[in-house]
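Contributing new complexes? Match this layout with zinc ion.
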Amino acid sequence: MLNQFAGLTSPKIKSLKLLYSLVRKLGPIRINTLTEITGYKHVTCTRLLDELVQEGLIYDSGIGESSGGRKPLMYIIKPDAYYLIGVEITNLYTTVLLLDLNLDILDVKKLRMDSQCTGEYTLNFVSRCVDELLSKHKIQKEKLLGIGIGVLDPIDKETGVIINPHLFPAGGWDSLNIVDYLQQNNNTHVFIDNGTNLAALAEYRKNYWKETDNLVFVSSDMGIRCGTILQGRLVRNKMEMDEALGHMVVDIHGRRCSCGSYGCLQAYSSLPAIRNEVVRRIKRGHASYLQDRVNDIEDIDFHHILNALEQEDPLCLEVVKDAAYYFGIGLSNLIFLLSPDIVVCGGTLVPKPLFYEVVSETAQNRLMHYPNSHVQIIKSTAAYNIVAQGAGCMVLDYFTEEILP
Ligand SMILES: [Zn+2]
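Output block (do not edit by hand):
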């Protein structure tokens, strides 16, 4: 029945969709709470919920506390009513997840991207995984709601093509319509979005949906990106602005950025910026544990630096501390603008020493003048599969969360 929820539907299906969405968000939940939120009469609400139970979409969790009389029914969604495939395609790996409706990962397949991984080769791998995963877990094809894809490079949403796919180790991506190709080969719904948006979506739906409507996900890796949830919805735009945070100016007389401008956050807090600053300081004579690790200082890469951070190399710690300070300034600007309740920090540097702590403290210090601001800055739950989980979530959301006039 979930697949009847999409598009223009009858008033009754609309009511079923609303109730299912509320149970998904707030479950375990009692009928009384649902009647309060929806305004439906108790008898109507009971009848509709019964129908969802009959359809195998929700059930009574059995955890209701009795206050003397009968135990109240506490509804939750049935996670195995349908299944989702979530995919992340990057220039390093392609990851395919089989997910249940709670977005819990039932199985994972990975492809290491090398010179044979052309566009078609990679998408054929995805299709093969879909068949294998469904058959291994004895899931009928009708139980698959669809396939969601997350990619890091900008996508042309109209044509389903990756714009400027220059970092892939093999070709064949330039005019490949990923959505059409997978739709034809798998005969199911296929959706695509950028990875940062999907990480924001997965963090939000899995961990913070009950608490807030406004959340921002930020990450610093090769680029500095952000994905925004406003009023419970992912903010999308045609401009592909997920990297815009990286080009927010934090010092107008500052360092030259790769975009040609001066003082962008990208020039201070991204991995390439941190790497360049470490090399510059060693050349100037600062001592570092890395000097003995490489023949030529120019050979230092991110992996060396991430490793040196674990060893608490004073120079790398100092550079990362500065990078985090600038990131905290950029983040506080973003918080002033969007007023999120929660900021989730992701990316390679967050689990390493110092970075997250300095970012969080710097941003909170700048917000102190606004005592009504109670933003929480939280570390990402870190799962490496968060983008692919978000890709699966986008499929489920298409059926249950879309608001139509
Ligand atoms: Zn820039």
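Reviewers usually confirm one structural detail per submission. For this one: The CA atoms of residues 307 and 313 lie 9 Å apart.
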